[in-house]
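[PROTEIN RECORD]
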Amino acid sequence: MPDNELVAAYKSIPIVTRTLLTATILISLGTAVGAISYHSVALNFPLILYKFHIHRLFTPFFVTGVGFNMLFDLYFLFTYGSQLEQGTFAGRSADFAWFVIFTSLSSSVVANYMGYQYLFQSLLIAVIYLWSQSNSDRIVSFMFGIQFKALYFPWVLMAYNFVMAGASIPWSMVIGAASAHLYYFLDSQYPAMGGPRLIPTPSLLYRILPAQEVAGAGFTAAGGTAATFRTGGTAAAAGGGHRWGTGQRLG
């Protein structure tokens, strides 16, 4: 039955990516039709600190405009979120959930001082940034068939938004990319240089989302994440971290 196929397709989406997509659709549509007030989901640190509106640390990341652009937003989130969760974080959805939580909290702190209240673009570019690091040598196509390495994809998107917004810097995207790079550095680059893992995934997330064996993907038990760094196209085991790409430095 078509309904059953639709439900099966929905359930086939990795759990964390599925949750992000569902929250984005429900909150964005809810605010668009007036069922949810924009104010109630906006980032507001005074209400978080003094009224304990903890949900405001996360709801701003699920508000995007309803229209044709929303389809592109959802497509990008589905595509790159699924590829991250099934590739770099294969069998370790808890680690992917921690990446989303860490980058969201980091972005919220910066966005609060910059006066941004809705941060879907920060979440989206964070996911794309980490995907680009994990697939740095893959060739991707953009508008009009322009091709380049995946490593540059986040910057191409930001440049495109800069032009489309009339030379206005897309700060929410910059914040998201910076938060994702902070996670990438602390979780993988710094440990690879001999330092400790400073942001291990909380054990609570492993209890909620237990690690699963996946062919070709390694992981450790609760309290640590898997590591397979690819160098020159060859995968090699390493302690702590993820299966990233060649790990080029930015700047």
Summary: The radius of gyration is 18 Å. The first strand starts at residue 139 and ends at 141. The CA atoms of residues 7 and 25 lie 16 Å apart. The chain has a mean pLDDT of 85.
